[in-house]
């Protein structure tokens, strides 16, 4: 019975890893390519590591915790690295193949749309005047240096 369960975990891990790798190769956009390694491959490698931990715990005299630690570190680091890669792509202004939403769809909004016109009017009427001495300091060059 243990062999069937381990076989199931290994096959599941292999399928998820293959799908994640295939997604990395087939997807055209950097943003969509992030999904392959971070989602499917994480599940695949995690499944393989759990199968390995169960097998070596059953065969050996003690419990094998190395694989569980690797699985925990994998589950922690994969989303963080994907987030950093996505932020880097946004910072570098990489283009996405996804279409941008139309302006009409944004303007129509929905029931969750918040009316911010009052807040905008309040922001426009706030006191944003610059004091005269600050304005002179900004315009006049510093003549104190000799």
TrEMBL record:
Residue ranges of the TM segments: 6-25, 37-56, 68-86
Q: Which InterPro entries match?
A: PhaG_MnhG_YufB
Q: Where is this region: Disordered?
A: 101-146
Q: Which UniProt keywords apply?
A: Membrane, Transmembrane, Transmembrane helix
Q: Which Pfam families match?
A: PhaG_MnhG_YufB (PF03334)
Query: What are this entry's molecular-function GO terms?
Result: sodium:proton antiporter activity
PANTHER family named among the record's database cross-references: ANTIPORTER SUBUNIT MNHG2-RELATED
From the Swiss-Prot or TrEMBL record, give the protein name.
Multicomponent K+:H+ antiporter subunit G
This chain's source organism reads Nitrosomonas aestuarii
């Amino acid at each position: 019975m243990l062999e069937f369960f381990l076989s199931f975990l290994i096959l599941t891990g292999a399928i998820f890893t293959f799908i994640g790798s295939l997604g990395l190769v087939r997807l055209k956009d950097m943003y969509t390519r992030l999904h392959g390694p971070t989602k499917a491959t994480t599940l695949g490698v995690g499944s393989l590591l759990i199968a390995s931990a169960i097998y070596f715990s059953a065969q050996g005299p003690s419990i094998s915790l190395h694989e569980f630690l690797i699985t925990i570190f994998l589950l922690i680091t994969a989303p963080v690295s994907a987030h950093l890669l996505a932020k880097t792509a946004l910072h570098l202004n990489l283009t996405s193949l996804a279409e941008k939403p139309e302006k009409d769809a944004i303007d129509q909004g929905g029931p969750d749309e918040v009316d911010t016109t009052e807040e905008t009017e309040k922001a426009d009427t706030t006191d944003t005047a610059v004091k005269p001495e600050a304005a002179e300091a900004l315009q006049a060059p510093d003549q104190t240096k000799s």
